[in-house]
Amino acid sequence: MLDKYLRSRIPDAKKLVKDLRKSFDYVSILGTCVNTKRISVSTRINSLDEVDNECGFVIKVYKDGRYSEYSCNDIRDLKASAVKNAVKLEEVYSKDFKVRMLEEKEHVEDYLREDPSKLTNKQIIEKLSAVKDELHKKEGRLINVNTAYVKRQTSKIFVSEKKCLSQKYDWINVMLLTVVRDGDNIKSNYSAQGEASSDLALDKFTKEAEDVLNISVKMLDAKPVKPGTYTIITDPSISGLIAHEAFGHGVEMDMFVKNRAKAVDYVGKYVASPLVDMYDGAASCLSAASYFFDDDGVEAHSTQIIKKGILQTGISDSLSAMELGSEPTGNGRRQDYQRKVYTRMTNTWFGPGKDKYEDMIKSVKHGYLLCQTNNGMEDPKNWQIQCTASYGLEIKDGKFTGEMIAPVVISGYVIDLLSSISMVSDEVTVHGSGMCGKGHKEWVYVSDGGPYLKAEAKLG
Amino acid sequence: MMKKSEILACLKANKNISAYELSIIDKDSRELFYVLDHLEINRAVKVKTVTVKVYVNDKKSTGVSSVVVTAADDVKSLASKLSKAVTRAKSAKNPYYPLAERKENLKDLKKTKKDLNEVATKVAKAVFKADVYKNGWINSTEIFVSNFKEEFINSNGVDHVSERFKIEVECIPTWSNKKEEFELYKFYESDKTDYKKISEEIDEILNLAKARSVAKTLKDVKLPEDLPVLVKNDMLEYIVSGFAQDLHYRSQFMHDNHYSKGDKVSDTPFDLTMKPVISGCSASRKFDSHGTLLSSVKLIEKGVVRNTYGDIQFGYYNKEKKISGNLPVAQLNAEGSEYKKAPHLIIENFSSPQLESDSGYWGGEVRLARYFDGKKYIPLTGFSIAGNIYEDIKNVKFSKEEAQTSRYNGPKYMIFEGIKIS
Hints:
The complex is a heterodimer. By secondary structure, chain A is α+β, with helices and mostly antiparallel strands. Chain A has helices at residues 4-8, 10-20, 80-87, 121-138, 198-219, 236-247, 254-257, 318-324, 357-362, 414-419, and strands at residues 26-42, 46-50, 54-63, 66-72, 107-113, 142-160, 163-182, 185-195, 228-234, 278-280, 303-307, 310-311, 332-333, 342-343, 347-350, 366-377, 384-396, 399-405, 408-413, 423-424, 429-438, 441-450, 453-459. In chain A, strands 1, 2, 3, 4, 5, 6, 7 and 8 form an eight-stranded mixed sheet that branches. A six-stranded mixed sheet of chain A has the order 12-11-10-15-22-21. In chain A, a hairpin with a 2-residue loop joins strand 21 and strand 22. The N and C termini of chain A lie far apart (49 Å). The mean pLDDT of chain A is 95. By secondary structure, chain B is α+β, with helices and mostly antiparallel strands. Chain B folds into three domains: 4-209, PmbA/TldD fold (2-Layer Sandwich), CATH 3.30.2290.10; 214-236 and 335-421, no CATH class; 259-333, no CATH class. Helix content of chain B is 21%, strand content 39%. In chain B, strands 10, 15, 16, 17, 18, 19, 20, 21, 24 and 25 form a ten-stranded mixed sheet that branches. In chain B, strands 1, 2, 3, 4, 5, 6, 7, 8 and 9 form a nine-stranded mixed sheet that branches. A six-stranded mixed sheet of chain B has the order 13-12-11-14-23-22, with helices on one face. In chain B, helix 1 (4-13) packs across helix 2 (75-91). Chain B starts with a helix and ends with a strand. Classes of the chains: A alpha+beta, B alpha+beta. Chains A and B meet through strand 1, strand 2, strand 3, strand 4 and helix 4 of A and strand 1, strand 2, strand 3, helix 2 and helix 3 of B.
């Protein structure tokens, strides 16, 4: 259920909105309480802790063509005059400019999605310990196993003149990191499960554990890639990385407002092979960024960004949508109550195709299956790619050779990569365990994924 | 929010708590968000973050768990949270380690506090002072000006308080070559109000955006073999941080370190010292999250590992005699090399610099580099570099020019040879 403290502050929020409306044309209040439990069982250090917990409020006001915000711990007994003083600027350095005021529709609703599992801390520790101990029995070169179970419980309220919303939702991540060592040669591999149920996340974690270890051992013999252009098959995590980093950031519509996105010139045009569909939205699937309303108080959406290779639309927070004369898509997100709202991705993924994975592998004369998200960076203005896979498996004449390359940096031009997609597998996997920054800050929880994709790409 | 005395009383009232640490951070911040030179939104942040760490110890083991005290808490709810924390701490024990002992309690308070609105406005003026070009402009700017007050108390009598100040500027410069627009990314961070420096940094990044707008690719320019590659700023900071992490007590304890005391890192006789404070480095701190008063440690001397460093937990596990604490900033000293006359490649801006401490892989996609062909600089874009830092460091050279980031002070460039460019 919704955090009791937040529920107790709804009447205070309503009163403060009413008081501030005497001085401002628009007022809203977002209240946030996040409780995170983290259980870590490792080879050398264990912990059972509450981490990254936060509880606070942000008050947004509008007057004279500009927004102001005040972030604080509590709103009980907070006077309207204190908010006015906090956001007052004696001297404003700015050219004449007026942002339009947000318009809202009446909306009152409470939302709830809770972890159905009833596992105790002791049971979770036992499951994590069993995996750690089993892996150590299997491999002498294994120097560290780090396991972590993280349950994040998020409660939020949004109150304005026309809205009174509350939501509570849980998300569970279970992570495994294996570190192997052969002399000075140290390699690591990981898996990260994200689910709405602890039982499900822990089951997947247990099933994948041995594969994670085996790959980290194989990485000890991995070679660097010989730079060049290759046929690649991307696993769902790398497909998701491309959807997110190479293209998704470029359709965040606050970038359209700033004229920072090349995508604005491509709406209605081909940006990818006709085999490609792409989606984003808190309601597009059940994953790490599946909230019920965003930090602007807009209900979760599912947005089709690319349809049969043609760019349909971007995603937006309320303010960007207002500036562009479009409908907000429920993508207004804050890192926490102390930070500003930006347009942010949520669950971002490529849609399924009709090809079978086995046929895709068989079709490769010489290339690589690229696996496991490692790193990525956006370039919305110039559409240069940097996506890094943890490793690649060599394919020759339709068969795996047993050779591994690691790590693998995919670079090039976004449209060239997406246009080269020639096969798309028929099953989609979305990984609910990621975090995403905007520029180099503003971290939010996201998911991404897709099917296996066959394309041509520059590797280095 | 509960008073400090009430929190301490709750901690002392729970007889199952062996020891505790209390951290209180007050943040007061003013923030300005510009689209072009239009102020779109201004923000004020005034928050207190209170964290309690509860220890349940015996002679052989330590259990620890955290509690965040929020505005929702009163004496009753905090007592309940502390009891739950005790249960958690008992459930996940580690080998025993002590808390920081009281030696000297730090009172590092600023004599005068800066007017944050005034500083933020001056920073904005300094940014836009550099916005003077016809074909180049600042697309968007975010300014954060913050005062922090940090208090630390533990059950051994440690009671520190420190204040600090920070300016952060994120800036997106754009340049048009009339066919297309090109942008780069700049993040400036400092604990000084040096407005002239801010204008200079923004001017420099605008001119780099200009260079990107006319940059060539490796299809147009053939680079010679074994071209010296110069890295700076965030990549240089990553590399130094990677070595510092390897020489942290924690890495030594986890057995995933590449180096130990006495190992030769490089044939180049450079010194690397971790410090608590370097003027201008905004990551500077005088005590760490365990309340240990920080003291400098020379990790590498003349290319050879002399010491390790780290916090009280892993220092105790490693049987270190003197605990340095978690040191936040790095000073690198080395003799500068002459590089300017011969062909070389300066990496000005990566998409996202990468360094994997396990494997040693480092590199990334380059958004802008400048290639000196012996006569002139040619801007280059759209390629990647890759290397292994544990190999490449052996013959590293350094520039005579110096530079500073939020966590680093020392030579402006690291100069590598034999780096893969593709």
